[in-house]
Amino acid sequence: ILNVEQSPQSLHVQEGDSTNFTCSFPSSNFYALHWYRWETAKSPEALFVMTLNGDEKKKGRISATLNTKEGYSYLYIKGSQPEDSATYLCAFGQAGTALIFGKGTTLSVSS
Amino acid sequence: DGGITQSPKYLFRKEGQNVTLSCEQNLNHDAMYWYRQDPGQGLRLIYYSQIVNDFQKGDIAEGYSVSREKKESFPLTVTSAQKNPTAFYLCASSIQAALYGYTFGSGTRLTVV
């Protein structure tokens, strides 16, 4: 069974802090890496799809990088706000099959 | 509005009973998926279907069954053979999962009483 690892499992930051999380995935048979944000009582929401080694994506204060050769992706949040509190999931995509999810990183931002 | 609908939101089941969770989408997606989440665990794949009348087992299919008679619908039955059915169940659909990712439903929380 292929494994996707996310770290840390959870973290708590103050409003205005910048933070980052890691997603590790198999470096073979790579097709795409997905990041989702999952707020309590809502459906997971897509943040980024990354396909190329060296990809960098940005949406507002959130950005992500991808290294397919070593099998990791970083998600960065600059100047965290309370509304960033959520669980951030990464998912590994291979052709022709379902996504494989990590356990997620739960972020809590205090004002 | 296009989307994916799961019902009910909360479901209680007595031990020994089968129960069916509904998942319907109007996005015209070919593929649909069922995942289960337990506390401290990630999303674990139960079953998926990439086309009507076809489906594949995921990592934890034991004690579950599915059908895919229509493109729009992918119901999941939790049978009495599932030893630990209390969990949060999430349904998703996709045009092509690897490249486009998923659209998720809002989930069903199943509790065995």
Explain briefly what this protein structure is:
The complex is a heterodimer of chains A (111) and B (113). With 111 residues, chain A is an all-beta fold.
Keywords:
heterodimer; A: 111 residues; mainly beta; 0% helix; B: 113 residues; 7-stranded mixed β-sheet; 4-stranded antiparallel β-sheet; 11 strands
N- to C-terminal distance of chain A: 40 Å
For this structure, the quaternary state is: heterodimer
Query: What's the main sheet of chain B like?
Result: 7 strands, mixed
Mean pLDDT of chain A: 95
Low-pLDDT ranges of chain A: none
Note the total helix count of chain A.
0
N-to-C CA distance of chain B: 36 Å
C-alpha Rg of chain A, in Å? 13 Å
Element-by-element helix/strand order of chain A = EEEEEEEEEEE
- Globular, elongated, flat, extended or rod-shaped: what is the shape of chain B? globular
Helicity range of chain B: under 10%
- Helix and strand content put the structural class of chain B at mainly beta
Shape of chain A: globular
Total of helices of chain B? 1
Strand content of chain A: over 45%
Identify low-pLDDT runs of chain B.
none
How much β-strand is present in the residues of chain B?
Answer: over 45%
Mean pLDDT of chain B: 95
